[in-house]
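Course assignment 3, question 2. Fill in each field.
Student: A.L.
Task: Predict the tertiary structure for the chain below.
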Amino acid sequence: MDPWLRKAAFLVVGASLATGSGCFSVSAQAPYGAKVKLLPPDVPVEVSRKNQKWFILFGIIPLTPADSPRDIIEREHLTEVRVIVEDTFRDVLAGAIITILTIGIISPTTVTVEGNRAPLVSGERP
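Answer field:
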């Protein structure tokens, strides 16, 4: 194998490993005493909150104080909830640059909390 090709392959594999996802942990808990139902992916929702969350040490420790799903459920008074943790294109782009600069120590992911509030009873205020 050509030495130049070997170096290029090594760089591609190394960059792929360096910019890959980490071991992210996002806790999705309902507030104490709240009755919350989990929603399947095909149910429409009225509330959607998306946060980019940054982690250090390959996703082990959260770096940013983005709202936790529990905080959003409580603040929005959600009774039906869906939590989505994903690496968006923005995460991959930002992560590729920052992860290479920090040797994989800092990396992002996106957490989306979607849900519905309980229907209002007549005479009740939101």
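Instructor remarks: The chain has three helices and five strands. The CA atoms of residues 9 and 36 lie 49 Å apart.
Grade: pending
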